[in-house]
Write a structure and sequence with these properties.
The complex is a heterodimer of chains A (388) and B (272).
Chain A: E1 7-8, E2 11-12, H1 21-34, H2 38-52, E3 58-60, H3 62-68, E4 71-76, H4 86-99, E5 104-109, H5 113-125, E6 128-134, H6 135-140, H7 142-150, E7 154-158, H8 165-179, E8 183-185, H9 196-219, E9 225-229, H10 234-240, E10 250-258, H11 269-272, E11 274-278, E12 281-285, H12 310-318, E13 321-327, H13 328-342, H14 348-359, E14 366-371, H15 379-386
Parallel strand pairs in A: 4-14, 5-6, 5-8, 6-7, 9-10, 9-14, 10-13
Antiparallel strand pairs in A: 1-2, 3-4, 11-12
Helix pairs in contact in A: 2-4, 4-5, 4-9, 5-7, 9-10, 13-14
Chain B: H1 8-21, E1 26-32, H2 38-50, E2 56-59, H3 70-81, H4 86-96, E3 102-105, H5 108-112, H6 117-126, E4 131-133, H7 143-151, E5 155-157, E6 159-160, H8 166-175, E7 180-183, H9 199-209, E8 214-217, H10 223-230, E9 235-238, H11 240-248, H12 252-271
Parallel strand pairs in B: 1-2, 1-9, 2-3, 3-4, 4-5, 6-7, 7-8, 8-9
Helix pairs in contact in B: 2-4, 2-12, 6-7, 10-12, 11-12
The chains are: A alpha/beta (388), B alpha/beta (272).
Bound molecules: pyridoxal-5'-phosphate (PLP).
Pyridoxal-5'-phosphate binds at residues 84, 86, 110-111, 113-114, 189, 229-236, 302-303, 347, 349-350, 372-373 of chain A.
Chain lengths: 388, 272
């Protein structure tokens, strides 16, 4: 039984109220056992195949490749059931909750994708589901709110602060502190106290495991670059992980530059943040010199978060991964451009990765870009913002 | 004045011992520095010292207080909105720290952001603080901060929760300085109509393992509840109830008057 990491270099840890420690220990043990348990692995594999529709395709995007002057493959997480990579994590944690006998599940959501994924898994497994969501996100991701209701989940509106993802996570953690004996918290990204960053990474690396095999089969060589957007960091860590040892593969994480890094209105924790604690782990956070967490900003609800997973902070410091950022305006343009070039409407989150690619074409080798979700949820908001 | 030569750890011990020698539990009211504004919080701290507090727990406002319920969360947000900083919180500390021991309640980001734990300890000691409670720094993460505070003579007060396994509770008690803070209920801070029936057993078990006093907080909202806690524990901490009183008062004087009246009544209940 291998250990579930608590730290990534200096980052990570468990900076949470004492009340939660026993549950985090229980979760650590449950995951260490489950991931070595063949029956659990088979059940997860079966659900990957028959429920989520995995493996998702690795699609050679011909017109996009032409446009950027190099070969680009899209890892089609938008085709996963519920429309984003978030289901990979939710299904694994749902099975784990069941295994631990915790029949009430809570989650936070920003874009609503993680909330929908968790509500879906709870319906599948017969678990009670409560999802915390900021009222600003409820406004801009309305279709997903309706889907969660349809799936039988209770969506609890969160009014605090900027009424977005940070406050939704805080509200979920407070619920967990009060109900920890009966409830499992399905956190939606590689953030939070240990063991969550390692657990969610382990559940998302299926993206990278599949992509590596598919890419080698298609091209007979590893990609030159992997490109993924970084909010909390789960789709990016998921695709990066199986390639970390392949030093020749560049790992590129694209954060939200919002209205520009200088404007102070962005979600770029790794590029423009400080070291600090948010939601239970030490990592890069957007904070002032007093240590107060600042509000993030991004046009995409899923990247509108002032923190990031601790393993990314380590990958940044070591130089193994490179982080960059793309503005709201560039992401919005890329949203339209991919739709017209490929007939694929991306979510606003991976539109950031597309936007970076559009500016960084040419050169040797080929790319794999994680298209982490589809854009149906964003249509109304994009129409409003672009006046289309 | 011999008190001045005592370390923070020793001052906490003296305060608990003084209450014990009167046959009652120590009364430790909580307040949020800078709430509703800086002036009022200075008046509230003075009112605490005037109205029977044995120690003060002084909250340092933080943007994302995960251990706190709505009342204290809102107070922190308001204090930050009114311009509170670690520096202004330490001014509140310094305004009463020669009268009674002040224990800072500061989230770990507040401890780390200002040049690290040693610098935090130095500044806290300079403001006369006796110790710190860091509610998001559980056993396993706390060593560096505990050592930095200890080097400045300050106590790092650990928390024990109803969900803490007995074996872990013993390890927490073994490293406790100042006192052990028993969290009464599974949940965040906030007023509660009733305290859990199992609390007395949790306090007794903690006392059996701890060499320092054991105080109870979270949920204590009436003088009667404080008295109930005082029958089993060495100290009672009252938080949200007093923060609400401060919130509802219209001026610094009214806030001081409201919290003072509550504390005097609670002191009588504890002595009964
Ligand atoms: C489609 C999609 N991509 C990316 C993200 C960002 O999260 P992460 O960085 O954890 O992948 C989200 C979050 O809601 C999302 O819905």
């Amino acid at each position: 039984m291998s250990a579930v990491e608590e730290r990534f270099g200096p980052y990570g840890g468990r900076y949470v109220p004492e009340t939660l420690i026993a549950a985090l220990d229980e979760l650590t043990d449950a995951w260490a056992q489950a991931r070595d348990d063949d029956a659990f692995g088979e059940r997860l594999a079966q659900l990957h195949r028959d429920f989520i529709g995995r493996p998702t395709p690795l699609y050679r995007a011909g017109r996009l490749s032409e446009r950027v002057g190099r070969t680009v493959y899209l890892k089609r997480e938008d085709l996963a059931h519920t429309g984003a990579h978030k289901i990979n994590n939710a299904i694994g944690q749902g099975l784990l909750a069941q295994r631990m006998g915790k029949l009430r599940v809570i989650a936070e959501t920003g874009a609503g994708q993680h909330g929908v994924a968790t509500a879906t898994v709870c319906a599948l497994l017969g678990l009670e589901c409560v999802v915390y969501m900021g009222t600003e996100d409820i406004r801009r991701q309305r279709p997903n709110v309706e889907r969660m209701g349809l799936l039988g989940a209770e969506v609890v509106p969160v009014e605090a602060g900027a009424r977005t993802l940070k406050e939704a996570v805080s509200a979920a953690i407070r619920d967990w502190v009060a109900n920890v004996e009966t409830t499992h918290y399905v956190i939606g990204s590689v953030v939070g106290p240990a063991p969550f960053p390692a657990l969610v990474r382990d559940l998302q690396r299926v993206i990278g495991d599949e992509a590596r095999e598919q890419a080698l089969a298609a091209e007979g060589a590893l990609p030159a670059r992997l490109i993924a957007c970084v909010g909390g960091g789960s789709n990016s860590i998921g695709i990066f992980t199986p390639f970390v040892a392949d030093e020749e593969v560049a790992l590129i994480g694209v954060e939200a530059a919002g209205e520009g890094l200088e404007s102070g209105r962005h979600g770029a924790s790794l590029l423009a943040g400080r070291t600090g604690v948010l939601h239970g782990s030490l990592s890069a956070v957007i904070a002032d010199e007093e240590g107060q967490i600042l509000e993030a900003h991004s046009v995409s609800a899923g990247l509108d978060y002032p923190g990031v997973g601790p393993e990314h902070a380590q990958l940044r410091d070591s130089g193994r991964a490179t982080y960059t950022a793309v503005t709201d305006a560039a992401a919005l343009a890329a949203f339209g451009e991919l739709s017209r070039l490929e007939g694929i409407v991306p979510a606003l989150e991976p539109s950031h990765a597309i936007a970076w690619l559009l500016e960084n074409g040419g050169g040797e080798g080929y790319d794999v870009l994680c298209l982490s979700g589809r854009g149906d949820k964003d249509l109304a908001e994009v129409m409003e913002l672009t006046g289309a | 004045m011999p008190e001045a030569t005592l370390t923070g750890v020793e001052r906490i011990a003296v305060a608990f011992e003084a209450a014990r020698s009167e046959g009652r539990a120590a009364l430790m009211p909580y307040m949020m520095a800078g709430f509703p504004d800086h002036e009022s919080s200075l008046a509230i701290a003075a009112a605490y010292a005037d109205s029977g507090a044995d120690l003060i727990e002084l909250g340092v406002p933080f943007s994302d207080p995960l251990a706190d319920g709505p009342t204290i969360h809102a107070a922190a947000t308001a204090a930050l909105g009114a311009g509170a900083t670690l520096g202004s919180a330490l001014e509140v500390c310094g305004s009463v720290s020669d009268r009674l021991p002040v224990v800072l309640m500061a989230y770990v980001n507040m401890v780390l952001a200002h040049g690290g734990a040693a610098e935090f300890a130095r500044r806290a000691a300079a403001a006369g603080a006796a110790g710190a409670i860091v509610p998001d720094l559980p056993l396993g993460e706390a060593e560096e901060v505990r050592a930095a505070l200890a080097a400045a003579g300050l106590a790092l007060v650990p928390l024990v929760a109803p969900t803490t396994p007995p074996e872990r509770r013993a390890r927490i008690c073994a490293v406790a300085r100042g006192f052990v803070y028993v969290v009464s209920t599974v949940g965040t801070t906030g007023e509660r109509a009733e305290l859990p029936a199992a609390l007395a057993d949790l306090v007794a078990a903690t006392k059996a393992e701890s060499e320092v006093p054991v105080a109870v907080g979270f949920g204590i909202s009436t003088p009667e509840q404080a008295a109930e806690v005082g029958r089993v524990a060495d100290g009672a901490i009252v938080g949200s109830r007093l923060v609400r009183a401060a919130a509802e008062a219209g001026s610094p004087e009214a806030a001081a008057e409201a919290v003072g009246a509550f504390l005097r009544e609670t002191r009588v209940a504890l002595a009964g």
